[in-house]
Amino acid sequence: RRAEFAALRDLPAMTTDGVRIQLMVNAGLRDDAAALDVTGADGIGLFRTEFQFLVSATMPQRERQQRLYKDVMDAAGDRPVIFRTVDIGGDKALPYMKAEQHENEENPAMGWRALRLALGRDALMKAQARALLEAAAGRTLHVMFPMVSETWEYEAAHAIFEDQRKWLAARGKMGPGAVRYGAMLEVPALAEMLDQLLPKLDFLSIGTNDLTQFLFAADRGNPKLAERYDWLSPAILRFLARVSAKCHEMGVPVGVCGEMGGRPLEAMALLGLGINRLSITPAAVGPVKAMIRSLDVGAIRAAMPPLLEEAPRDLRQRIETWAEEHGV
Ligand code: PEP
Ligand code: MG
């Protein structure tokens, strides 16, 4: 079906009832931007900036970061690139940052990582903010923060960016034309605070990889657990349904950038919960777009609430049957 997927490249990710879905790709390296042209995706919905740090022998200095961000934005052209600030620490340990990391953490995924580490070491965060702001010169910068657990963490990160923006302006340097700020929802506690958090955001992006490991208390890297908990389980879908509804109620765009969105059946369920932005691995764009173009999204949106109310144990099977019966 590869040729069939390739033929979809220039066709819009539009459902049969005329809803345009934003289909973006996850990326992390300079060359990944080429995936935009190959897949025909609408942009980069998650640019994992820590990749540059992970492949470097020494800490990438601000100028090097800036060059990478500019190259990626240049390659993307008019298509948006959502840069995620560094998610390092924990299991993504950097040899040149040992002193910053608490060694021998028992639970590194829940440890000193991502925004926690970046706020604890604000020179790192400031340098990255400067690099992103200057790289975006004259354009719109999209930035989001990983592992936000409480609203104040988002506010602190936002303040660092805004301070750097003022600093640039005061020196007559060109910053971005506009900045769109987002948070990643990966820590379940944040879902209880959306009424306070959402008014401060331009968008929310749900990282289902980390989110599901925390919802089920199941290490995402443990092969024994890999098949045990299903993305199409009632608990996850009910959780995501509430988050999506809250975002719609408050008028904040919401998307999913975890691997879940890269599987056609899971992606269909997400669309059924009101999510209409997905950022997925480039190889999944064809299959997911084919699903979207065969889907009546109004019908799946009507089908999901009773299914989640009933919450059958074989929910995956029921969703699959629905898809078959509706020609998806
Ligand atoms: C996630 O956790 O779902 C996510 C997109 O981030 P990462 O996979 O980089 O942790
Ligand atoms: Mg994550």
From TrEMBL:
This is phosphoenolpyruvate--protein phosphotransferase. The chain holds residues 432 to 759 of 762 of the full protein. It is found in: Cytoplasm. It comes from Sphingomonas abietis. Belongs to the PEP-utilizing enzyme family.
